[in-house]
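User: Show me a protein chain along with its predicted structure.
Assistant: Here is one chain, sequence first, then structure tokens.
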Amino acid sequence: MITTGLTLHTYPLSRLLLISSTLAITYAFSIFNHITNPTIFLFNTLISSLITTQNHHTNTHLAFSLYIRILTHDTLKPNSYTFPSLFKACGSHPWLNHGRALHTHVLKFLEPTYDDFVQASLLNFYAKCGKVGVSRPNEVTLVALIGACADLGMLSQGAWAHVYVLKNNLRLNRFVGTALIDMYSKCGCLALAYQLFDQLPQRDTLCYNAMIGGFAIHGNGHQAVELFKKMRLEGLIPDEVTLVVAMFGCSHVGLVEEGCEIFDSMREVYGIEPKLEHYGCLVDLLGRAGTAQGG
């Protein structure tokens, strides 16, 4: 690998780290320490392999030493693949307090709608700590719980979490609100989602993304476009996700001109470079329009 230059590429290096960590951790670290500017992917690979091997206590120390190197790096920051392994390592003494501190880092470095693996690792961690159903959950815990309900289509459990928020006078802030909007939308309860959206005292881009996306995936393109316009009137700046869900809504109801205008505005108005998802929406939009005209 050294003589052929494969050690300059992330993927073969990641495979080498995985294999070497099963043989000798010191050897894996020796390889890692000779990598110039390792990517977050390589950090995550070694952290994960440390947690899945034996000698739990020592390896957890090493995993957190790698995590500290990420935090002190000039350009790197943890992502959604960094945290699940670390939460798994924190499920027993003396690492429980580290897990609670790590939860604050999830909120700092990830968007509130972080993925299923992070949500599941959070729930597993608090379950191991004996905190589920024993102590009173706060807004942060509820965001993770509601997000899991949304992804699994568990409407009754998500609605229970909503009722819990109201009964216990917890803050229905934009993070909890966005999670509930996303949950109701994914479960097909658009009227409840929009009622909640309309009642939120503060709405940011993420709130709008959840509601616009809810309208779009259920074929209510006109409502999605109207909400997109309302968002801009309120002075909020759309991001990449906003533009994808808005174009998706246009595609489903044949709003070709509006969808093309949104696509054109990406570079011209918002300075956002279109990605594969945006081009995919544009192709779908034009394809549906062509089919309609042909019919």
